[in-house]
Design a protein that fits this description.
Elements (H helix, E strand, L loop, with lengths): L16 H17 L4 E2 L7 E2 L4 E6 L12 E8 L5 E5 L3 E7 L2 E5 L2 E5 L4 E4 L6 E7 L6 E8 H6 L3 E6 L40 H18 L3 E2 L6 E3 L4 E6 L11 E8 L7 E4 L4 E6 L1 E6 L2 E6 L3 E3 L7 E7 L6 E8 L2 H4 L8 E4 L2 H6 L2
Length: 361
């Protein structure tokens, strides 16, 4: 009698939440690794909105296309003043490219000129601010840098107040600041005063003590960083002017590190490996970056973005101009204070720049 062989029925594919999560992470990482590294400034259109005349290099509109999603980088240029709006949250850094003026943020006047940086601090209530041009008829410009995950963590919200002089569009009352803006919900709620004459007796009280120390430090913190006061060093990567560093406790925010990297004519940076996620705005010059073995050319007003990659990214910058320096404004999230300097990938110097090699044989 011929034996009948029964085939086991194959399991039907079942996609549970765990599988969905794994596939989501794989797809998200792949998109970033395949995303744009260089956003050409010449290809980003100028637009006029209620707040300013500007270019938007990266924001939620193109996060699916770029190497480092989550960043928001805009570049306003005005010959007059901007509009006026208010932020709950704060944490925005502004690097001045041209012109002279000031920002009125709440009751603080923040004066600036090219090479300065201003910080809109993380405030408990709001940052009402407007930017003013002190040389009417001559343009002023800047780059504004934000990181959306931090903004979400502080329930960041922007509400408009006064339209920019150049905006001719319709009104939209639903996006304007309401009269009860500061009293809605728990915004104005404050508890009783907690002070300490000696060491706190509980760990919870130690947190309240740290809160008090933070508020005191923020009352004295620098919100405008003058270029002339920012330290310059020649290090293994090149010539850096530091604005925000993990060791700078006197600045209003250290969540985004910031420096200007100068590469002398015809020279190059060092070669380094780190987790990635940096953005670079080309202040002047032209050159290229070798990132993970691939060449990416750039010029003035371009934005360079590094993806976050398991195992880190290896990169090196080159100045193509034999007669003029290249300068890059660099922003990086300060993960170092929370996730460690290696940030799960290793922080390694592979090769030193020529300027360092000459002084450190």
């Amino acid at each position: 009698m011929e034996r009948e062989i029964e085939r086991l029925k194959e399991r039907e594919p079942i996609e549970d939440d765990y599988d969905k999560w794994l596939r989501y992470k794989i797809q998200r990482r792949r998109k970033a690794l395949e995303g744009k590294v260089v956003i050409k400034g010449s290809e980003v259109p100028w637009t006029q909105n209620r707040m300013a005349h500007l270019k938007t290099y990266v924001s939620q509109h193109n996060w699916e296309e770029v190497a480092a999603p989550g960043w928001i980088v805009t570049r306003p240029q005005e010959i007059t003043d901007t509009g006026k709006h208010t932020h709950k949250g704060g944490g925005i850094i502004v690097y001045i490219l041209e012109g002279k003026g000031y920002t009125q943020n709440n009751d603080v006047r923040m004066e600036w000129e090219p090479g300065d940086m201003e910080i809109l601090p993380v405030a408990r209530f709001e940052n009402v601010h407007q930017h003013f041009n002190l040389n009417p008829g001559k343009p002023w410009g800047a780059i504004f840098i934000r990181f959306w995950p931090f903004m979400e963590a502080v329930a960041h919200e922007t509400v408009h107040m006064v339209d920019a002089p150049g905006f001719k569009g319709p009104e939209a009352k639903d996006i304007y600041r309401p009269d009860d803006w500061l009293t809605r919900g728990n915004a104005g709620l404050q508890g009783y005063d907690i002070r300490f004459d000696g060491p706190p007796t509980t760990l919870l009280d130690r947190m309240f003590q740290q809160r008090n120390e933070w508020r005191e430090r923020m009352s004295r913190a620098r919100v405008v960083l003058k270029e002339k006061d920012c330290p310059v060093e020649t290090n293994r990567m090149g010539i850096y002017r530091w604005y925000v560093h993990p060791d700078f406790e006197e600045v209003a925010c250290r969540h985004i590190l910031f420096w200007v990297h100068e590469i002398p004519p015809g020279s190059r940076s060092g070669k380094q490996k780190h987790q990635g996620g940096r953005v670079h705005f080309v202040l002047e010059g032209n050159g290229y970056t070798i990132l993970e073995g691939k060449r990416h050319d750039w010029e003035t007003e371009d934005l360079i973005m590094f993806p976050v990659k398991a195992g880190g990214v290896v990169f090196q910058h080159f100045n193509s101009d034999p007669d003029h320096p290249a300068r890059l404004a660099v922003a990086e999230i300060n993960w170092y204070d929370t996730l460690g300097v290696d940030v799960a990938s290793g922080f390694e110097q592979i090769e030193d720049c020529p300027e360092w090699e000459r002084t450190h044989p």
